[in-house]
Amino acid sequence: MQTGNRMFRTEVVNGWGRLPEGQTFGYTHGIVADSEDNIYVLHTGVPNMSVFSRSGEWVKSWTVEGIEDNAHGLYLHKEHDAEYLYMTDCGLGTVVKTTLNGEVVLRLTPPDLGDVYSDEKKYKPTDLAVAPNGDIYVTDGYGQHWIHQYNAQGDHIHSWGGTGSEPGLMKCPHGISVKLTGSEPELYVADRGNHRIQVFTLSGDFKRFIDNDMDMPCSFYFHEGLMFFPDLHSRVTVFNSEDDSLVAHLGEDQLAYKQQGWPNLPKEYYRDNRFSSPHGVCVDSLGDVYVAEWIIDGRITKLRRV
């Protein structure tokens, strides 16, 4: 089964990424690829991290220390000495950095902002990204709709945001990524509740909106001149990353998110080449696309470039 268009066409790899007997997915949220094309899936099951080879064989699983029922954001960053995983738990307010084997090497302290957070106004981090200088950016997508900047050692530097639709204000800044092409690095923020992307400088200054051809963007993955992002409203969108123009919608189903009970629909509804609630996306070295969906018992799809 194929999906896409003449500019970007893929086919579904049926049965990719099965867990061993005795393990089950929870809600599948974050998904990343390492330099060897192993695919890491963060989800709400136990254990909550599952790793697969490029061909779909299960490699290993473990439970991430400090990440529990609300496992959410997952980001892989290549640093001078190794590759590391960064993760969030939006229920516990946890942000951790681990090795590829799950050893925790850094924990971020929640931002101490008394005018923003209180017992009633919680901090609920959903995603994060790392800049070339090592600074870490965390989105509080489910809490008070702020972005927090830390240095590589975990010291808080700067915060900006708040709830609204004006430049610099957000409604669920769900995902964040650093775009490295262009004249300078830029922060792309999936302002999901406003159905748009906001672009900032690395110091948090607003630059522009992107609001065409998207419907609740969740997160980002940049790969060889393309930007991939899951639209929670039942498709994965591909942009040309040079000018933020549409290349393709993958697996689009404009009926799925309108169904009663969405995102947890009857199993007979799902089709291999159609998405219901895509939440995370990554791309391997050969350009194949992996999609994680926000569904109670998880769903992972591999799309091979054709």
Automatic annotation (TrEMBL):
PROSITE patterns, A to Z: NHL (PS51125)
Keyword Oxidoreductase included in the entry's annotation: no
InterPro entries in alphabetical order: 6-blade_b-propeller_TolB-like, NHL_repeat
Spans of repeat NHL: 123-153, 161-203
Keywords carried by this UniProt record: Glycoprotein, Repeat, Signal
Top-rank taxon: Bacteria
Protein name as catalogued: NHL repeat protein
